[in-house]
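Run: sequence + guanosine-5'-triphosphate -> complex structure.
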Amino acid sequence: MFKFFKEKLKSWIGKTKEEIEEKVEEKKSEKGEVEEKLKKHPKKTKEIEPIKREAPTIEELEAEKKTSIFRKLKGKFQYKLSEEDFENIFENLELLLLENNVALQAVEAIKSHLKKELIGKEIKKQEVEKEIKEALKNAIEEILIEPDDILSLVKEKQPFVIVFFGINGCGKTTTIAKLANLFLKNNISCVLAASDTFRAASIEQLQQHASALGIRIIKHNYGSDPAAVAFDAIKYAKAHGIRTVLIDTAGRMHTQNSLMAEMEKICRVTQPDLKIFVAESIAGNDAIQQAKTFNETIGIDGSILTKTDVDEKGGTAISISYMTKKPILYIGTGQNYEDLELFNPKKFIKEIGL
Ligand SMILES: Nc1nc2c(ncn2[C@@H]2O[C@H](COP(=O)(O)OP(=O)(O)OP(=O)(O)O)[C@@H](O)[C@H]2O)c(=O)[nH]1
Ligand SMILES: [Mg+2]
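>> structure
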């Protein structure tokens, strides 16, 4: 998971560390030169001496220590990053982030955070790596949003209605089955709504999951109104004391206006408690535009990122969080029912090596 991103970041941090360390070395040799000069011209310091009275007091010695050139230079084993240095090191990071599916807007946000945190900061030679990592970690942490625990959230209302949207094949149906499995394990009953009445075999696919999990599915015929199926599933849950309703919908491209309008209708009719955008972690830039359009159309409450197990990059999580300003709720980590993890920003950051 995210191996490519991790390796690239590691090599950038290593390179940046070397660059900054070189600058510290330059400063050190500057210090050496000044010391040499002072040694070569001892008279100059002597000339200042006569101003002093007899032996200096301890206070005077202390004051002199503070202002002496030697004292000032002593601290120069550290380096203050200038705006120019920052732009130089950021150029490579910018490319690296873009290459790893971090959206341009999110890259800009990371840049402005790093600028604030790093420019003008005294960085000690032995702490260069730590400082860069820490700053980058903070910048990414600022974008990622800690998700609410859905298992507690669903207890707030009965039935609690969750609808899933996303493009074709992104993993909606599988994710619904995974979530239903998680609910059942936590003694939360659920019913599935087969509101994908469009794709061939979609109802049978959901039926298979329902049978495997031992739960009820509400279905109509192919071509029927998806909103009506969802409405019936909610009615069923109300009548049978079922705590959650999970609505499966047909895959739709964000560019298909009629399908986007249909999605609005499903939301209008069912008044869902959670509208979840499902996206493939591997989709990269495509997922970013999808997230933006889906969010603008129905106002999503959060996202689920599938197929992170086959994603070497990982930046999609940062991009979607930034574009929607809504949390990533779960990540899909495989094809089995158990392969669903609550999204943890801290764990994500560790996963990319920060
Ligand atoms: N490796 C991996 N595969 C996944 C994951 N989630 C879903 N898949 C696979 O992705 C494929 C598509 O999953 P579906 O759940 O059918 O996707 P969908 O969005 O419902 O597809 P449509 O209904 O056709 O729009 C299946 O082969 C799933 O097994 C995941 O987290 N990891
Ligand atoms: Mg499906």
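>> summary
The longest helix spans residues 3-40. The beta strands are 78-80, 122-124, 160-165, 190-195, 216-218, 244-249, 274-280, 302-306, 328-332, 340-342.
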